[in-house]
Amino acid sequence: MRFGDVPKDESINFQKTKLLDVSKEHTKLDKIHKNRSVHFCFKMCESWISSVLDHTPDNSKVEDRMLSGFEPTPPGSRAFLQETVRAALTELETSNTFTCLTDVVYNVTRMKKDEEGLILEGAGKTVELAYLKNQLRREQITRANDIGLREELIANLKDDLQTQFFQNQMEQEFVNRWESARCEQNAERLDKTVSGLKEQEDLLKHNMDTEMRVHTDTINFLSQAIQVLPGHKVQRSPKDRFQIDEEPHTCYQQCEPPSTDILSPYHSVQVDSTFTF
């Protein structure tokens, strides 16, 4: 049971009481006004009000607040119906017309149509909202897929860049090691070449010194030999001439060639055949 609902028995009793009140009012009006049209209209109003009361819940607390002026009276409530009945009865008593009831019915009908229109509009809005939600969900899925593809592409690019970086680093290290080894080999070859050139230079200097000594010794020897050759005129003193005559072999002894011990260091030296003194 909702808040403000009245049990069935009490609701039936309340409706009977209301109907009795309406009947009393009808009897009173019937005595005052004998017009058939008014009586017929009142009957129609009574039947309409009774049918509405049968389907209207009793919200007494809400109605009390509405009647006290705190809240406006909504159409379809008991307070609204009571006010409508009072206004209709007052109009019937005073002017024998029911324009107030007609206006109320027209307004209620218009409000019901407006409400139905709002309901239909709300249903359309609901369908449109569902369509927009589905479209938004599709766009979210599509965007999520695009983001996933982009993230995958970015991850692949990062992997490729990292692989390329490592490959370049390994190639650079290999080139550096190869260049370092090549430089070391070239340095070793250069050192060997320099040491070999120094050895050749030392040997060449030694050979040149040896050749110069041999050349000098040879010139000295030839000069001494030329001086003692026959037919070579040499001015000598009488004492020297006498010594030559006395001892002819002594001159040859004085011009003996240098000993082999002096030339022994030059036996291993190869002298060019084109060498000239």
From TrEMBL:
Subcellular location: Cell projection; Cytoplasm, Cytoskeleton
Keyword terms of this UniProt record: Cell projection, Cytoplasm, Cytoskeleton
Entries under InterPro entries matching the protein: IQCG
Gene Ontology cellular component list: cytoplasm; cytoskeleton; motile cilium
Source organism superkingdom: Eukaryota
UniProt keyword Nucleotide-binding, yes or no: no
Major place of residence: other
Swiss-Prot/TrEMBL GO biological process terms: cilium organization
Protein name: (California timema) hypothetical protein
